[in-house]
Amino acid sequence: MKRSWILVCFVNFFIASLMGLLLRWIYIVPIPGINFQFLMHGHSHVAMLGWVYLMLYCLIFHFYVPKEAQQKPVYNRLFWVTELAVVGMMIDFPAQGYAFASILFSTLHIFCSYYFCYLMWKDTKPSTFPEKKMLNTALFFMVFSTLGVWCLGPAVGIMGKESPFYQIAIQFFLHFQFNGWFLFAVLALFFKQSKLNIDDKKFRLFYNLFVSSTVLTLALPVSWSLPNPIFYWINAVGVVLQLCLAIVFIQLIRSQFQTFFAPLSSLEKTVYRFALFSLALKIIIQLVVLVPELAQVSHQIRNFVIGYIHLTMLGIITGFLFGFALQNDFINSKNTIQKLGIYIFLLGFVATEILLFLQGIWLFLNKGSFPDYYQNLFWASIFLPAGLLLMTIGIFKLKSKII
Predict the structure, then answer these.
(1) What is the rounded average pLDDT for all residues in the chain?
(2) Which parts of 132-239 are beta strand (E)?
(3) Calpha distance 213→238 (Å, rounded)
(4) Fewest beta carbons within 10 Å, which of 40, 67, 284, 394?
(5) 379-398, pLDDT tens digit by residue?
(6) Which stretches within 262-335 are classed as H helix?
(7) Taking CA 95 as the corner, what is the angle to CA 5 and CA 381, rounded to the nearest 5 degrees?
(8) Are 175 and 223 spatial neighbours (Cβ–Cβ below 8 Å)?
(9) Kind and range of the H or E element at 102?
(10) Do 235 and 220 touch, CB atoms closer than 8 A?
(11) Model confidence, pTM
């Protein structure tokens, strides 16, 4: 694994976090010349495609591509072309929003992801059936999610940006990126990293529940644009299946989890607990949203939306990615700078999540806003880029098995 790859992923994440911090500052003091929506598009694209996507690229390459295939120049070239697309979006989205250049770089990233899938299906050698099934499904959902992107042009041309078709196309992409590609990929990596001996029969049940619930829970964001009771019931079935898969997942890992968990450092244990707790919290929130009144409010109150997205992105996905990086010495748990960086990042995440969800509850109860809410949210958010900066500095100085 090239240290430059890991370093680039963390630099991208740090820049995305600075964009997020600036977004929260604009709520306090608007800055002339900065378009909030444009900056938000830049923040979300860099976080998703520059951090999560590229970190998954690195980890899947490291774990699943055989050593002889890793020597192929195509992987290094593809990484840097993909990073070029990320840098293009990083610059152009905040400047122009959806314009020719940003759409060009977004399209380049999609085609890079297609080629990455082709290489993975050709070269990867998962060692167990569960790993193979989860990895292939993750890659399928990555490609499948982009159907939503290809529908955006026709949606704008035929019905306009305010149409349900346009909004559903966006939600389709986001849903299958987060709940399909990202979650299936991190769990495939978790099965690989934990070396659990998983019963095939139980795994098939887990897998079928996972795929079914992922598809069915798309009904909730669809219902925001097309209100109809049928979507509520489809989502309800998906959420119940998701609860069942959580129970099966616990059964899959419970008997052997201590064997995996015991040798870990205290920091690695903390990070994995953090990721698993965030996953449990996500399932609980989806159960709560089965209450019809809350289902609609969950979309209308922006604090809930941002809090939930960050719970998935920063809590579950990033939590697991940090765990994998620590276990493989891409981040050194004994390095004081990096260790401090992780704890500062986690502190910032917890503080901002509490503020976001409490403010959402306050709005739901018609109690208005907390005093100095935006100021407090901004100060709590500083911990996120501060922690990432320390981790990035640590990687830059780290001498380990990353080359």
Answers:
(1) 90
(2) none
(3) 4
(4) 67
(5) 999 999 999 999 999 887 76
(6) 266-288, 292-300, 302-310, 318-327
(7) 65
(8) no
(9) helix 100-123
(10) yes
(11) 0.92
